[in-house]
Each structure stands twice: as C-alpha cells, then as structure tokens.
C-alpha cells in the first residue's frame, strides 16, 4: 500500500496547481524510493524509458512549432471570422460538434485533435466568437474563462471515453492485462463494446451541460442589452432635458 503514495503526491501537486511535469517526476521518485529502489536506479530507469520511447515526443516536437506559426499569422482570427458568419452558431453547439467528431474519431483509432493542436487555436476561439456574436460585444472575463474551461473539458471527455471503444488503445490493453493477472479472461471486444454506453452517456451529459452554458450566455446577452438601453435613455435625457421632462409629465 505504501507504494501507492505516488498517487497522493500527484493529487496534492495538482490541487496546489504546481508544474505538472515536476509533480509527475516527483511522484515517480517517491514511489521508487518507498518501493526500495535507490535514487540512482530511479534516475537510470527514467533515462532508459525516455530513450526507448523518445519517438512518442516527436508528435509534440513537430506539432507545436507549426501551430505557433499558424497562430502568429492569424489562425485564431480566421477561426473567429468563420464562426461569426454562421447564423445559428452558439458556443455550446460549436463545442458539441467538436465533441461528436472527436469522440467518433477516437472510437475508430484516429487522433485528430488535442489541446495544443485544436482546442487552443480553434475550438476555444470559435466558441468565444459565437458567444461574442450573441452578446454583441466583448465577453465578461468570467464568462470567457468558463468557455475556455468547457472547451478543454470537451477535449478530455471526448478522447477519454471515445478511445475506450477502440480495441487497440492503451486503456483497453491495460485493463485486459490487469484482468488476466487477476485470473479473469475478458476479451478486448467485450470491453470495447461496453465502452459504447459510457461514451454515449458522456456525450449526453456534455450536451446538457453545454446547453446550460448557452443559456447563461443568453442571459448575459440580455443583461448587456438592458444595460445598453439604459445608457442610451440616460444619454438622450442629457442631450434633451426638455423632452425628457415632457415624457415624465
């Protein structure tokens, strides 16, 4: 049980909002030490596994510079312009569409999204643009942060539950390996099949939450409209005090 203390380190580190990489490395070191490994052996294992799996970092190393160049030359701005032209677009509908595409693609083993590749440069700006079009003005900071949070949540939900339907994903193979060590023989097709109801439930729950987000945006739009009407009346009263007195009479 003591070897599971690494999980506690991860939880505490995330709660304190410390650097993710440092928290994970520290959790690995603590877990190794309480399991009886020497510090040198732990560091050696880190280096060994990094060398063996270094190809996995190529996707990040190649993607981030491309995304950075695209953002510098107006990717976010173009995404906002496109979504503003769509009549019935709302922040919730934009994110729900992405959720559906991402979940289906993950279910068939295609990784076509991600936080740095899609959410930050496309999904979040398009959702904010849809909300701005609804409010017809700049977004309140709290609402803007909430939309960005929902965009990140949609990515996590879609990928997490969608990939469990694909039989060759790491999560399915990990569960199969664990069950076999416990003497339970469960086929990967069975696990993938029973991942479908969970994925559908995640989609429905997300739809409900995104619909509530759209309602909050609509309420904010009404408040902004009422506030602007009040300012207009006040401005007219200042410009024409006599007409304002007549209206009062």
TrEMBL record:
Lineage: superkingdom: Bacteria
InterPro entries registered for this protein in UniProt: DUF969
Region (Disordered): 230-249
One Pfam family per UniProt: DUF969
Transmembrane portions of the chain: 7-35, 55-75, 158-179, 191-210
UniProt entry keywords in alphabetical sequence: Membrane, Transmembrane, Transmembrane helix
Record protein name field: Permease
Species: Pullulanibacillus camelliae
């Amino acid at each position: 049980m003591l070897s599971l203390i690494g999980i506690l380190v991860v939880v505490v580190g995330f709660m304190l909002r410390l650097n993710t990489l440092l928290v994970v490395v520290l959790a690995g070191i603590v877990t190794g030490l309480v399991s009886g490994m020497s510090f040198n052996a732990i560091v050696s294992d880190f280096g060994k596994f990094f060398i063996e799996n270094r190809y996995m970092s190529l996707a990040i190393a190649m993607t981030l510079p491309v995304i950075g160049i695209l953002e510098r030359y107006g990717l976010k701005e173009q995404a906002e312009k496109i979504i503003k032209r769509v009549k019935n677009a709302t922040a919730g509908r934009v994110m729900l569409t992405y959720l559906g595409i991402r979940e289906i693609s993950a279910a068939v083993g295609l990784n076509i999204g991600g936080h740095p590749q899609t959410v930050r440069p496309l999904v979040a700006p398009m959702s904010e643009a849809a909300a701005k079009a609804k409010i017809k003005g700049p977004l309140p900071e709290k609402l803007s942060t909430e939309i960005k949070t929902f965009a990140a949540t949609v990515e996590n939900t879609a990928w997490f539950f969608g990939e469990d339907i694909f039989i060759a994903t790491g999560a399915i193979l990990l569960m199969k390996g664990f069950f076999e060590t416990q003497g339970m023989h469960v086929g990967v097709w069975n696990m993938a099949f029973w991942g479908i109801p969970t994925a559908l439930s995640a989609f429905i729950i997300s739809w409900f939450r995104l619909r509530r987000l759209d309602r909050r945006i609509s309420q904010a739009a009404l408040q902004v409209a009422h506030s602007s009407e009040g300012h207009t009346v006040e401005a007219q009263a200042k410009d024409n005090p006599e007409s304002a007195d007549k209206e009062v009479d």
